[in-house]
Write a structure and sequence with these properties.
Length: 515
């Protein structure tokens, strides 16, 4: 969750190496994923293209294995490249349940697809290495820096992908388990300030946006949760973030010990956040801040220290930034923009103009996968968050922002209706509605129309939504045919088995009707 990297979110857990990067580098205050789920988000980061352009629709559908990434281009231009840990940006991965749930999201049924979110405390106060696989990959990266990078005669780029702070598998939850367990040790839990943990407010089930209700139900979150359960889930998640921070620390320490730190650019980010029971959900797959707002910190030669950048940016900006750092000419047909002009800006303004086109005042995120029964599109500007669904008509949009009057007298505001307003200007500020509980789309139709026009100029989202629906049917039919007579047994025993097996014929008939 990117909000943990600045105030007030950083009051909940001690993240010393995030703070180190802030002290000696720059933090982006409004960085967003381009798709809040593992594979499509990473596909956007590696390609520099929006999700609808690469058709990375879900965790099963990412980039082709031979896709040329920014790292491939850096290697071609003389960089020594090395990758460790989680990559997860190509097609063909994740569980059968995960892909079938995504393909069948338009089916007229409602099934719990995850285990109920829970916590698990393991080990004692001496247990530091909880997520052993991540630590092993961190060790590999550290050893590579100390044994290989230090002796290189050409520049290097090193990538380390961590699984933390992703929730852990829950074995009781069926095929390939799902991941609804927040697990840590007392060592990390002590890094969390329980008193600073906010219990999120929830809308009643009957008042929830229809897509949110579907998400909450399929994530097994519509039952009763005590405040203590919610507080623990959030605390354990923050503790998992503290363990992640320690791995970042190992990399920073290795660079410092080898004398490489002062001449190395370090970038820390994530594929998405974690709702941690905000909006009665855990996991991601949502455009709410907990899910879509990611950390982005950069330090290194030429990067301004102790800088906080408010501009909205997103993961597609990594591609042109990496090429810019390496002084490799980038093609103009990418979705992102280099961050270097912002990173090297003087106080009080952006860097001097370059030949690059001006950065837009918005970022785009979209979602087409499981646990959400509609393609979702977010346009985030400095003042608004607009969320459109499906064809733009069948599902109501959302608009978030809080409003105060600003005395801009005699200021003329042109409205789509053709009239003019004189006097006061509504100035929205998401920071005044941090929990995003007030959907004001109905109150501000002019703003909705304006933002929707911008969104449609970026992506023909009704057409994309239709393409995803067609893709889902094609994929499901192909998968069903591949199973032959085993179809009924296999589909009944996916992650939704606890609900499916109560009325298997009913759910098979719902699929037949959809097809």
């Amino acid at each position: 969750d990117g909000r943990l990297t600045f105030h007030p979110g950083n009051q909940t857990v001690d993240l010393p190496f995030i703070n180190f990067m802030k002290r000696y580098g720059t933090v982006f205050l409004n960085a967003y994923t381009n798709s809040p789920i593992c594979c499509p988000s990473r596909a956007a980061m590696w390609s520099g293209l929006f999700t609808h352009l690469t058709e990375s629709w879900n965790n099963f559908k990412g980039l082709d294995a031979d896709y040329v990434t920014w790292m491939d281009l850096m290697e071609k231009h003389g960089y020594h490249t090395q990758k460790y840990g989680k990559l997860d940006y190509t097609s063909g991965h994740h569980s059968v349940s995960n892909r079938v749930e995504a393909w069948t999201r338009d089916v007229d049924f409602l099934l719990r697809q995850e285990g109920r979110p829970m916590v698990n405390l393991t080990g004692d106060r001496k247990r530091v290495r909880v997520m052993e696989a991540d630590w092993q990959n961190t060790d590999k990266a550290v050893n590579w820096i100390k044994e290989e990078a230090i002796n290189l005669t050409r520049p290097f780029v090193l990538y380390l992908g961590l699984n933390l702070p992703h929730p852990y598998p829950s074995p009781y939850a069926g095929e390939n388990f799902g991941s609804s367990t927040f697990l840590t040790s007392p060592y990390w839990l002590e890094k969390v300030t329980y008193e600073a943990i906010k219990i999120p407010k929830w809308s009643s089930l009957s008042e929830m946006h229809p897509v949110d209700y579907y998400s909450s139900y399929t994530k097994n979150c519509t039952g009763e949760f005590t405040d203590q359960e919610v507080r623990n889930i959030r605390a354990f998640y923050y503790a998992m973030c503290a363990e992640t921070d320690a791995m970042l620390g190992e990399i920073i320490s290795a660079l410092r010990d080898t004398g490489l730190l002062k001449k190395t650019m370090v970038i820390f980010t994530a594929d998405h956040g974690e709702l941690a029971m905000e909006h009665r959900q855990f996991y991601k797959m949502s455009m709410y801040e907990g899910s879509s707002h990611v950390p982005l910190l950069v330090m290194g030669p030429g990067v301004k220290e102790q800088q906080q950048i408010p501009n909205v940016v997103s993961l597609v900006d990594i591609y042109p930034t990496m090429l810019d750092i390496a002084r490799i000419p980038a093609s103009r047909n990418r979705s992102g923009y280099s961050l270097l002009p912002l990173l090297r800006a003087e106080a009080g303004g952006e860097a001097s103009p370059t030949q690059a086109p001006p950065r837009p005042s918005w970022v785009l995120s979209e979602f087409h996968g499981c646990n959400v029964n509609s393609s979702t599109y977010m346009l985030r500007t400095g003042r608004w968050k607009y969320i459109a669904y499906a064809d733009g008509h069948s599902v109501p949009p959302q608009l978030f922002g809080t409003y105060s009057f600003s005395a801009l007298t005699h200021r003329l505001i042109s409205l789509n209706a053709g009239c003019l307003l004189t006097g006061f200007l509504f100035v929205p500020d998401l920071s005044e509605d941090p929990e995003e509980l007030s959907n004001v789309a109905v109150k501000f139709p002019v703003v909705v129309r304006s933002l929707d026009n911008i969104l449609r100029s970026v992506v023909n989202y009704p057409k994309v939504s239709s393409s995803v629906q067609e893709y889902n049917k094609r994929q499901f039919i192909s998968w069903k045919q591949s199973l032959g007579q085993n179809y009924s047994n296999v589909i009944a025993n996916l992650r939704w088995h606890q609900d499916w097996l109560k009325e298997p014929k009913k759910y098979e008939q719902a699929i037949d009707k959809w097809l």
